[in-house]
Write a structure and sequence with these properties.
With 747 residues, this protein is α/β, with parallel strands linked by helices. It contains 34 helices and eleven strands. Among the domains are: 79 residues, no CATH class; 73 residues, no CATH class. The strands form three sheets. The chain has a seven-stranded mixed β-sheet, sandwiched between helices. It has a two-stranded antiparallel sheet with strand order 7-9. The chain has a two-stranded antiparallel ribbon with strand order 10-11. The structure holds guanosine-5'-diphosphate. The site of guanosine-5'-diphosphate (GDP) has 22 residues, from helix 1.
Length: 747
Amino acid sequence: MSKSINVALIGNPNTGKTSVFNQLTGLSQKVGNYPGITVEKKEGICKLSRGVKAHILDLPGTYSLNTTSLDESVVVELLLNKKDKDFPDVAVVVSDVENLKRNLLVFTQIKDLKIPSILVINMSDRMEKKGISLNISLLEELLNTKVALISSRKGTGIDGLKQLIADYKTISAEPNLDTTVIAPEYFEKLRKTFPKEDLYKLWIVITQDVNFMPIEKKAVKDTSSFTTKSKAELKRLQQKETILRYQFINKVLKETYLIDRNAAKGWRASIDRILTHRVFGYLIFLFILVTIFQAIYDWSSYPMDFIDAQFAAASEWIKTTLPPGVFTNLLAEGILAGIGGIVIFIPQIAFLFLFIALLEESGYMSRVVFLMDRIMRPFGLSGKSIVPLISGTACAIPAVMATRNIENWKERLITILVTPFITCSARLPVYLIIIALVIPEGRFFGLSYQALTLTLLYLIGFGAAIFSAMILNKILKIRSRSFFVVEMPSYKMPLFKNVFYTVVEKTKSFVYGAGKIILSISIVLWFLGSNGYSSEFNNAEEIVTQKIETIGFDEYNQEQIQRELNSYRSRVMPEASSASDSEMALAMRDSIQIKKLSLENKARNQEIASYKLENSYIGTIGKAIEPMVLPLGYDWKIGIAVLTSFAAREVFVGTLATIYSVGNDEEETETIKERMASEINPKTKKSLFNLASGISLLLFYAFAMQCMSTLAIVKRETNSWRWPIAQLIFMSVFAYIVALIAFQVLK
Ligand code: GDP
């Protein structure tokens, strides 16, 4: 096997680096994190000619090697560390033809580290419109490098770039500038102290944390021993270096870069004026948000229902085809349910990222960030937090993933931590059933109490998010300063390939990242719910059958059977009475008999399931924690439902259906409701679901972190268990206290 060439893609943000990466690697990409930090690491393989391969590493966007953020320090640390397995044989510096001057700064710095560098000038398709012309061969000569003029949008020039990568050995590693002129004496001293080291490299090491303190400095030696200058002096020298570089760049561009101003058009400025307008800007954004929200909420319901149905069918199929036993149950109810719980989120994630990618790609997102920044900043959030917060109304999972766009770590962390307060769609079934039970149907100024309560719950969620953001902003001591660069890239038609890769990558990262955790918790919950140690659990069938034989069905089920049988009879009887021959009448009677048996069988199974759940490990735990939930106005049954719905909130309704031994089909939610309404609190002897306990339950679900999938994704996105655990504890305790106060005050 031939050795592959290590290529590092470097460049300013928004130069089309990702597009170039996509062009070079196609679907052979792998996305991970740098060890210990949450900076995304993207790599892929590019096939060159003659079976040679290149390993492409897409480094975070950086404006210069003078680090100001975590992302940039990743780049510097790699370029300084020859021993790193990713150390580039060749650096490919991507620049944008419209911003060549600014882009060249980092190019000259990398060049001065004596790393062979190819200069990619991207977006060549815009040259004509903008009236830009370039003298490539002179540029190559002056910069002492190879230049690839490409358009990653049109796919032109990519083969030429691959050829340059394959021939990287012919590329000069000579520096562009002599940095020592900014402080000759100082550099002379450095040279004498460290005769073996490269001077520019040394300089980068010394100034590495002048602007920013990176978390990890493995590759960088302790700088204190050889800094004889104060931070302020070093900063001043850095500025001097930048000026020196721009002098050089200006000189080069003067000879090679020509722009005919008349060719450039002014429509961009006028669109910008509208999109960032104090009134229209917000209105337009609101309109776009509503559309996105609608899409995640509505459109994804079709594929989600479809997925749901498929998994139900698959589970049914397994149960009927495989021999009954623990393994079959584990497969059908534990593993399959777990995988279903992961797959079900894919449509929402895909839709959200489709829209986000479109907004980013088109250049509109930068305007939104600019607009929202003013509003969000006082709460410790970033303009970019608005997208996660709004998406959280559909589901916190894609919302938490969407925080990756927020560069500032503190703002990103706060957004991640508060997003689960936003009312997500999984809370809706819980809210709806409890509201229907405990909130009276009357109206207040034409608005129904029930609708008002629901609105209030949404507002409470949003308020909790904003409020906790403010508090977190005060208490979190995280140094995460970065220069706020509002870059307004020009408007572009989104590139299908980029949008597609974003959607695929986000979906994959959810399925593999959070999937494992969701699956394991599902299996644990399944185990606890379908196993028990007591003889009651193990002999549930006989016990329940015996009970039915001696004292009959549960009162509720008895009524239910009678009612259904009556309605069946009334449908069948008219035909039977009109039937002339007695044979027909006999057949009718038989069919009623069969209906009765099947209804009884169903009721029996429901009662067994209920009895089993009651005596399973979960049931035992539920009863054990009853003293804890009694002050909130719940009994052990609600306790169990709260426990199991830790997997996902919507499980609440299903668990109550099982424990009240009623079916859980769509048309039977009405029966669950009736059943819940007839429940009596053992202590107060009053209705269990009353205004006090109902409100308490609503508030509990509004604040509690009842979603393992969110915890799993928070773990993935923050790269540590610390934050999801803190979130779980804080939200649960908070929810408990609020629910407790609500019940005690209202009862
Ligand atoms: P990155 O931030 O450097 O990774 O840049 P992206 O790859 O995300 O691209 C930034 C923007 O430039 C996107 O809107 C792309 O669609 C656009 N873009 C990328 N390559 C080209 C190109 O060759 N021509 C034009 N006109 N636009 C491009």
